[in-house]
């Protein structure tokens, strides 16, 4: 997994952007095992990056969204937004 610490370079107002590799000619999503994630860190740069990394680490450990929300002291909706 690659987490890039950037400002909102896509101007979509999202906290996290997940990048998929797509074959242009067919529209097929290529799963090469790499997860590329951009984090909008314009506001609260260090806090946002730490929170996103913690959410992803807990998710990778198999924790459910509710447990992640409790451990990170955020809403389940925020957990879902970070992971989507």
Word description of this protein:
The protein is α+β, with helices and mostly antiparallel strands and 84 residues long. It has one domain. Helices cover 38% and strands 21% of the residues. The protein is built from 3 helices and 5 strands; from the N terminus they run βββββααα. It is globular.
Which structural traits does this protein have?
84 residues; alpha+beta; three-stranded mixed β-sheet; two-stranded antiparallel ribbon; 3 helices; 5 strands
Helix and strand arrangement:
Blueprint: E1 2-6, E2 16-19, E3 21-22, E4 29-30, E5 36-40, H1 45-60, H2 65-72, H3 76-83
Parallel strand pairs: 1-5
Antiparallel strand pairs: 2-5, 3-4
Total number of distinct structural domains: 1
Main sheet: strands, sense, barrel: 3 strands, mixed
Poorly predicted runs are none
Rounded to an integer in angstroms, the radius of gyration calculated over CA atoms is 14 Å
**Separation of the first and last Cα atoms:** 14 Å
What is the structure about, briefly put?
With 84 residues, the chain is of the alpha+beta class. Helix content is 38%, strand content 21%.
